[in-house]
C-alpha cells in the first residue's frame, strides 16, 4: 500500500467529552512519495468558538456561519481514506474526533493503519529540539505559512512524513530488525514498511558497527595536534583583546570590555603564583571566555591539564557547543577538550543489547524509549543521554542500561572498546581542558581523585553552588523508589544471579525484603505527616520536610521504626549471605564480578539504614525526611548532610591543589567575599580576590520599584498579600504588554497566585505560564514564554538563576518576597545551630548572606545585554525598611530606587517605558 492520507483538524477544544467540535478539516494525499491531492473545508460546529481558539487559529464565528456541518461531508472524507494509511501529527487526537463524529452519524469508524508523525519524529530524530509541528517545521526548514490552520498543518505534516520515510531508509539493518520486534506496541502501523526496508536496505555506512544484535556509531578519537605557545601571556592577551586583535577581527561590532581582560589576568596570576582565586564577574563581563583564554594558555604552556567545572550538565553543554568553539577561533592555537560526566549519563551498549534480548511485556513508554535509543546510538558520538528527550518513565528504564549498572567489564572485551564512558575517560586523559560538573568533581574529590585524570588547577564556574553540591556528595540519600529499583536490578542482572542461587529461596527472600521495605517506608510517611503538624516546613519542590534526631524522637513510636529498620537490614544481610555463598562456588569471572557488585550495593544500603535509624546521629550531620502529602504512601526521601563542609574542602581540596579559581556573578555580599570564603574553607594565605564590574549602564537601563502600601505579612494574612501581588501583576502586565517574569520563594505561593491570575486573565489575550503547573521543562517553559507576544511567566527555585531571556521578551521582573530560607528548613536549622555553637549570629552569618546571593541571582535575570531595559518590582518592603536592607541594595548595581504607593509606581513605570 503506497497511499498516505494526511489529516489535520482544528476544533473548538481538546476534549470530545466536553462536546468540542471540528471547525476545519485539511487533507493532503501522498502517492509514490508525491503530494497528488488536497481537500479542505471549514465546518459549522453548532456552538460558539471560544476566544482562545479564535486567537490561535484566526477562525471566528463569522467565518463558519455559512459553512457546512460535518454530516454533509462525512461520506466524502471516508472515500478519501479508502485503501490508505491515515497519517496525523498526534493520531489519537485527529482520529478520535473523526471517529466520534462518524459514529454519531451511524457510519463505521475508520480502521485504517495509522502513522503518527509525532511518534515517528521522536524515534527517528531523537536530537530534535521539540516535537510540536512548528518546532519540527523549523528544524527541517519546511514551509509553514499558516500554523494552526488545517490545510497548512496537513501540508507540513505531509512533508514531514516524506522526511521520516527517507530517514527510515537510511537505518542499519540491525536497527530495523529490532524496530520490527517493537512495532506492535507503537501507535504507528509501520510493520509492512519495516519488513520491506529489511529486504531492501542500502550498504551500511562505514562508521556504523554491528555487534551483539545492535548497530551503533563507533567513533574514533580524533585529537588535534597541539603546540606550545611561545608568546608571553601579556603579548598573547594583546593579540586577542586589543586593537586589531582577534576579537575585533571576528566580531563586526566588537567593543572592548576591560573587565574581561582583567579577569583573564587575575586567573593567570593565580595559576603562576599557586594561589586560589575568588572572582565575582558581574553580568556582561564575558566570564566564560575570560577564564577559557588563560586556561588554554596555561594548559599548553605548562603541558598540564586544567579542569573546568560547571554546576549543571546543561551549562557543560553550553560551554562545549558555544563557548569552546568560539575560544578555539579567538585563541588561534589548536587545543583538545574532553567532556566527562558521571557513569549514569552514558548508555551501556552491552546492557542495552542484553535488555533487548529479554522478552519483556513492556508498556508503551518503555517500548518508545527502546526505539528512540536504537536510532540514537547509530548517531551519537558521546552516548550521553542529555543529548535527547525520553518519555517520563523512559529515564527509569535508562537507569537499567546506563554505564552505572556495569560491573568490571573485561578490557579485552569488544564491549569495553565500544563503551562511550571508557572513550570519554580515554579522551580526558589526552585532553588539555577537561569539562565536568560540580557533582562529578565532588565525587572525584571524595573518592581520593580516582575518577578524573590527575590535575592541579581547576576553574569552578557558578561557584556559589559548590558548598551544597559538596554537602550532598559527602552525605547520604535513601528513597523508596530507588531502593526497590536497585533490588529489582540486582535480581535481574543479566540472569546471572538466578543461575547461581537457589531460585525458590532467593525469590522468597526478595519478596520478604521488599515487603519489609514497603512497611518501613509507609510507617515513615505517616510519621512525617504526624510530626510535621507541629512545625511544618516545605522543600523547594513543595514536599513536607521533617528533621529528625535519633536521641530526641518519641521513644515509643521511633522504636517501632527502629525495629522495622533492623528487620530490613536482617533481610538485606541474608541476601548478602546468599550471594557470598554463590561467589565461593566455581563461577566464571564475569558472574563473580556481577555478584560482587550486587553485594557492594546491598552493603551500602545496610550502612545507610544503620546511619539513619540505628546507630545514632552525629552533631556534625543533619538528617531529614521529605514526603509529598498527596503522593504515594511509601514515597519517602531520606537525606543526611554535613552541617559544615569548609574544613573538609580546606583539607582535601584547597590544601592539595595548586590553584582553584572560584567564579560566579554572585559571590559577594556588600562587596565582601568573607561569607563564601568561610563557607568553602578557602585559606587566607593563598587567596587572590577580585570583583569584575559589569559594562552595562544599569542606572539608565533599570528602575527598582518597591510599593509602600502592600499588606505586611507580619500583621495580615498571606492571602491578602497574594491578592495584592496579583493585582500588581495584572496592572504591570498592561504597561509592559506581559513580558513579565515573576519569581516566588515557594510553590505554595505560586500555585495560589496562578489560580487567582488564571481566573482574572481568562478573557484576555495574556498567556499565563507557571512552573510546576504548565507542562514542560524549564527550557520548554522559557521557550513558550518567548513564543507569545503577551505572556507572564511564574517561576520559583530554578528560575532564580540560569534563565536568560534577553531583549524585549522580558521587560519586567517581579520578585514577590526576599528569598530567605524558612527558619524551620531542616538544613538551615542544623547549620544555624552549628553557627550558634561558635558564638556567632546565624541570621547575619548564614540566612542573610544566602538570601542576598539568591536575590542577586534573581535580579540578574532582567538585564542580559547593553540594550536591555526594564523594571524590577519587589513586593517586599523589607528591601527598604528592614535594618539589614542595605545588604541587599548595596550588593546590586547602583540604580534608581522608587519607594511609593503602587498607583504612583505604576505611573512612573508607564512614563519610563
Mean pLDDT score: 89
Task: Tell how many strands the DSSP assignment holds.
Answer: 26
Largest beta-sheet characterization: 7 strands, parallel
Measured distance between first and last alpha carbons: 61 Å
Low-confidence stretches at least 5 residues in length (pLDDT < 50)? none
| CATH architecture annotation of the largest domain | 3-Layer(aba) Sandwich
| Overall helicity | 40-55%
Quote the beta fraction. 5-15%
The number of domains is 4
Task: State the CATH superfamily name of the largest domain.
Answer: P-loop containing nucleotide triphosphate hydrolases
CATH topology of the largest domain: Rossmann fold
Structural class: alpha/beta
Rough outline: globular
- Strand order in space, largest sheet: 10-11-9-12-18-8-19
| Level-1 CATH class name of the largest domain | Alpha Beta
Cα Rg: 30 Å
Q: What is the helix tally?
A: 36
Catalytic activity: ATP + H2O = ADP + phosphate + H(+)
Enzyme class: hydrolase
Protein name: 3'-5' exonuclease DinG
Cofactor: [4Fe-4S] cluster
